[in-house]
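ingest -> validate -> predict -> emit
validate: passed (alphabet ok, no gaps, 445 aa)
predict: started
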Amino acid sequence: MKFKSCFSVVFIILLLLKGNVFGQDNALETPLAEAKKEVKQERTSVYEEFEEFLKIVKELQDKYVEEIKLNTILTNAYRGMLSGLDPYSQYFSSDELEDLKIETEGEFEGLGIEVIIKDGILIVITPLLDSPAFKAGILVGDRIIKINGESTENMSIREAVKKLRGKLGIKITLTVVHEGDTVPVDITIERAKIYVNSIRGARIVDDEYKIGYLAVSNFQENTVKDLDIAIQNLLKNGMKSMILDLRFNPGGLLNVAVDMADKFLEKGVIVSTRGRDKTQNYVYRAHKKGTYPNFPLAVIVNNGSASASEIVAGALKDHKRGLLLGIKTFGKGSVQSLIPVGNGKAALKLTTAWYYTPSGVCIHEKGIEPDVKIPLSFAETKALHEHLSMLSTERKTNAAKEENAVHNEISERKKKKPLYEDIQLELAKDILKGIEVYTKGKRTR
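emit:
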């Protein structure tokens, strides 16, 4: 009975697809008889494939060691179809859809790692700043080969995410191989509530030259609103130039990235998308209204800057609005569309287009090359992690205005340990100082 029901569903799908799959305009390009023959062959081939699929479903239902629900078989089939396409296309059940919504709002439970599966290997795109994973020493490009001793080989992205997330306070041991290394190391991390604040560290970093600084951790619904507030405060404090830090920013919402780039550009293309379906071809443009003053701008990126952060970096670089410094970005330049299925209770996250910079360069698997390359060694990268984690701890301590004993402890720690020099940030400051000196010289001539 179940088999007949499944066959009926597939047969109806075939009828619905008939006009699109088989009704091509081949008759305009080839003789009518030839076209009909090709369509007939294609139709026969598709029906044969579906017949094979139905046979497999029936064998699973009849002969697998345990009884399997038809819905479970089909869900696994959907996941398999999408996992074979690229690392980003996925099938979401109703529960997973809810998790996806929560992520875009900036709060969820887990370790705080953005991961993908590439060539069958679970790879870290970037650990989220201030997250348990970041503080524990998980690095960009780490290969996670085991989760709690279980191999990640052939593990789906959703399976991996489920293992990484879960009950708060539980410790998870990740066996990782750092990029450029061959020896695996075990890193134990405790799950926590992840609060992703888009804008962090907004401050004047040079009082003499009035250089402002702010970092954008990811692109959420409130990011541009928070950015406006931060920049207006910096301008009130006399900011003359600014450093925009996009390091370790894994991306987020496309429309938010476009709106942020628009704040720095008066006109021109911000990004374009191109896909097989013409409805995916779109050009996003900047508008003069609401644009920030034209202060000198330096943008720091690294290999943990991906997706939406690459859109902003690419637009600012191509329009020569900001000077890019650091390391080539990750190269995640694909558009995923969320397509509701199952009466809206489930969805496909499907790659439907590529991102292109204003100059027409495809970002995907290429990344954005900085104008000024500032590579970091493995040791320097680890030191940067520790430095940014310490900054986060100090900000929280100051914000909470804890007791003097805590402040004294931090002061003592600072005395014992040499101050870390963020060479990428320092070079960005030096470049902006040079621009200020050059501009002053031109004015006095």
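The first strand starts at residue 90 and ends at 92.
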